[in-house]
Amino acid sequence: MTASGDAPASARVTVAMLAALQAFDAAFRLGGFKAAAAALHLTDSAVSHRIRKLEARLGERLFERRRRRIEPTKAGEALAALTGRAFLELARAMDQGADPARRGRLKVSVFPLFGSAWLLPRMADFIARHPEIELSISMSTRLADLDGEAVDAVVRSGSGDWPGLVATPLMRLRTTPLASPHLAVDLGLTSLERLRYATLIQMTRFPDAWPNWFASQGLDFAKPARTVWVEGFEAAMLAAERGAGIALSLWPLCASSIAAGRLVEAPPIRADAGTCWLAHRVDDATHPPLKAFKAWLKAALEADGLSAL
Q: What range defines the domain where residue 25 resides?
């Protein structure tokens, strides 16, 4: 017989504890008890009760309860890093062990503008070339998707210096001002000075985008005549197409909108915005669907003259 102190980890985790950890992890990933309850097919109160029992056992608060939202504490963030990896490995083991067909699945998370402007319009080509791969695309800006979620790879912009990850450069990015053709003509947007008299569309996700663009031109960012706030690049471009003001976007991801005549660069001045990367865990480098996806990305970007590889 095995002494209790030598029992495997699986024997030291009770069913109630496992359920509590599952509720906590779902609430952390989904940002609330209600969303976690829906994902786990539980009531909101059941999720809340399980997390409170977990907090009592650990002797630490895992969430700060706000009026309409929750915020993880430092203890909660530390625990989420552990539960995320644990549940991810369990889910992957079950996927591969239960059904051999699932080994052909690939889940990729991309930042929204890359997804809508470049990747999704080319998905038919990937599917035609790799009918054996079941590809799932989600939109997000969080690199943490790889830390504890069932995602095989992410496409993100940034430095690419992410410990524990393999980062492959895809394309160089540049910010450029965009306006509808009519607005560009009406305002005479041919110089930097004219921008000071225009409505600038700013983004809550990227509040430093305009200040950084002006700084790249050696200018301080002065408060514009008028400002419109939207969430991200996609909303900013849509607002600019409708003549609401001048938006910043990322070249070459805005190239198709310019080619279609919906937007023009106003003025045509591009500033370096870093690199777009494909990142994945080191252990996933030999995953066949991921290898196929990386090879396809490289070929497609080279065909478009965009590859930074």
A: 13-95
Helices (H), the chain: 9-12, 15-30, 33-40, 44-58, 74-98, 112-114, 123-129, 145-148, 181-187, 192-195, 209-216, 233-241, 255-259, 288-303
Task: Enter the pTM of the model.
Answer: 0.71
Instruction: Please check the confidence at residue 98 and state whether its pLDDT lies above 70.
Output: no
148 contacts 88 by C-beta, under 8 angstroms: yes
Residues 6+ apart with CB under 8 A from 85: 147, 148
Name, in order, each residue with C-beta under 8 angstroms of 276's C-beta and a sequence gap of 6 or more: 114, 155, 156, 157, 169, 170, 171, 172, 173, 308
Domain boundary, last residue among 78, 95, 112: 95
Q: What is the pLDDT of residues 208-220, one digit of tens each?
A: 999 999 999 998 8
Rg over CA atoms, the chain: 23
pLDDT per residue as tens digits for the range 99-109: 555 568 898 99
Regarding whether 156 and 242 lie in a shared domain, the answer is yes
Please check whether residues 68 and 163 belong to one and the same domain: no
pLDDT mean over 42-63: 93
Closest CA to 281 of 146, 159, 141: 146
Q: Which phi and psi (to 5°) does residue 287 adopt?
A: -65, 115
- Among candidate residues 76, 95, 114, the one where a domain is terminated: 95
Residue 165's CB is within 10 A of a number of other CB atoms, namely 19
Q: In this structure, are 114 and 87 located in the same domain?
A: no
